[in-house]
Amino acid sequence: MARKTIKVDYLARVEGEGALTVVIRNGAVADAQLRIFEPPRFFEAFLRGRAYGEAPDITARICGICPVAYQMSAVHAMEDVLGIKVGGQLRALRRLLYCGEWIESHTLHVYMLHAPDFLGYHGAVEMARDHADIVKRGLELKKIGNALMTIVGGREVHPVNVRVGGFYKAPRKRDLLAFAGELRRARDLALETVRWTAGLDFPDRTREYELVSLSHPDEYPMNEGRIVSNRGLDIDAREYDAHFEEIHVAHSNALQARIRERGHYLVGPLARFALNFDKLSPLCREAAHEAGIAPICTNPYQSIVVRAVEVLYACDEALRIVEDYEEPDQPFIAAEPRAGVGQAATEAPRGMIYHRYRLAEDGKIEDAVIIPPTSQNQASVEDDLKVLINGWIDLPEDELRHRCEQTVRNYDPCISCATHFLDLRVDRE
Amino acid sequence: MASRPTLIIGIGHPDRGDDAAGRVVAAALRGRVGDGVEVIETDGEAGKLLDLIDGRADVIIVDAGLSGAAPGAIHRLDATAGPMPLPMFATSSHAIGLSESIELARALGTLPKRCLVIAIEAQRFDLGAGMSPPVTAATDTVIEDLLAELASQPA
Q: Inter-chain contact B107–A128, Cβ cutoff 8 Å?
């Protein structure tokens, strides 16, 4: 059988390393296999034997793009073991920190990684040559997200101010208020971003997913909520293992997550948005309606618009938190170590992330499980390629390859959370 | 306006084998350089890197790279002289690699007047692994070379 294999030596614009093989037979996609490398597995082993208080710092090092997501899931899971509940301004500060990460991570993806796909460029560099103003707007918006992470988290990369029970040091009220002007600016830029992304040219494709995200009665979910789906799932994070499982697939080092009863599912912006649309601020709901994606978006290529709406929300929400902020009496709630198991799920920019820890009586970590969004979405990425690529199969190789890459990038996949590339092969008869 | 100091940026991931090289160099230089030099470690993420170099006249960037040369080989690239070799840093730990970040700065008109890139040819990027012996030796060379060069610069 004559086969043609195309290898791409590097692919920037997908965070991390991995490989994708698309097999085409008789004019249709016969198989799509995504192989990803998962540093969380290394870190799970690395965490064993460490003190529970080290988990936020250690897990933050898993990913340079979404350290807060790892930290937040870790501290909530530890607090679940220790029996403490962080509320009031400390809770608000955590949400504020998460807003910073959503702004910077989503904006990076929207402007630098995903937009070039829709505008016909190989990457951000080419796009910047023709659209410097747009790229500069993205960089300015992203920078405000980074600055917010620094004010609350203490450092942009791997924030060091987060600890179990709260923060090492609470930010000063005057520093946060002084930042309000930046956030208003960011909100304007984010609104422009929604309108700009809404005008991009999207492939006309939709998919039916089981959408999974956190859901909170009063707010768009970040740090807290029940795990819900559009197919009836409604559980506490403590019930995660009863409803979800991770399976080995032969072609990937990573485990693929599935819902035990039903199989593949989707986490991330599309899921959050569909399941929590009514919790968005009025400004965001209006912007989403204007953009034509409300109240549910089933075209994965339009995830770029949903991300833009979530950036707008993060700016709006950050501004609300900053304006309401009062310095807490204590930057953290102290707790004594104790034995037990703790679980938590939070909403990383890329989707729900779940952590489970077992602690010994002295607070040493005996066991750690970290399930990041990309491993949960891995099967959906493969399904998308099997379904959505059909119709493009007769395209020349480079265009087909580009469509495959674009489809993977819909997920903003954090394929390894550091280093290396996606090696993409299209295998045709 | 007084000119801003020379900026040395060490890029990498501390837990990923030879990817730590740039940060190792930066960490070693910190405290050993004079007032006219600022040293920063970063993960190399494009947005942050662009912010760091924006408005600077003199920048030295140290990172691990892959070009097919022997591990530990030291490449000196004058980024202001012409386009960066794109694949070389595609493997660094960032969504957009160093070469692309520099090209982005060039496209946006924010590339410093002097932008020297020192790339240390890497051997391995394994999580939890230390740097390989040839890369460790190369970082020592880069540290000493940079100290000598900075010392010979007029204050």
A: yes
pTM score of the predicted model: 0.92
Identify whether A140 is part of a domain.
Answer: yes
B40 interfacial to chain A (CB closer than 8 Å): no
Please indicate, yes or no, if residue A112 is contained in any of the structural domains: yes
Per DSSP, the three-state class of B17 is helix
> What CATH number is attached to the domain comprising A369?
1.10.645.10
CA gap A211, A144 in Å, rounded: 30
Confirm whether A273 is domain-assigned: no
Query: Which domains are seen in chain B, by residue range?
Result: 6-152 (3.40.50.1450)
Pick from B42, B92, B108: CB nearest A128: B108
Range of the structural domain that residue A115 is part of: 40-207+285-374
ipTM, two decimals: 0.87
Token couple for A242: 């009863």
Residue A57 lies in a domain: yes
- Count of the separate structural domains present in chain A: 1
DSSP string, A71-90: HHHHHHHHHHHHT----HHH
> What are the tokens at B25?
């160099």
pLDDT tens by residue, chain A, 429 residues: 333 333 333 333 334 456 778 888 888 888 888 877 666 778 888 899 999 999 999 998 887 778 899 999 999 999 999 999 999 999 999 999 999 999 999 999 999 889 999 999 888 889 999 999 999 999 999 999 999 999 999 875 567 899 999 999 999 999 999 999 999 999 999 999 999 999 999 999 999 999 999 999 999 999 999 999 999 999 999 999 999 998 888 777 677 889 999 999 999 999 999 999 999 999 999 999 999 999 999 999 999 999 999 999 999 999 999 999 999 999 999 999 999 999 999 999 999 999 999 999 999 999 999 998 988 998 999 999 999 988 898 898 888 888 888 888 898 876 543 333 345 566 666
Chain B hits for A142, CB-CB cut-off 8 Å, are 47
d(CA A213, CA A228): 6
Q: Which of B19, B38, B34 is nearest to A419 (CA)?
A: B19
- Chain-chain contact of A113 with B42 (C-beta, under 8 angstroms): no
Are B90 and A143 in contact (CB < 8 Å)? no
* Chain A residues within an 8 Å CB radius of B127: 39, 42
Distance from CA of A63 to the nearest CA of B (A): 10
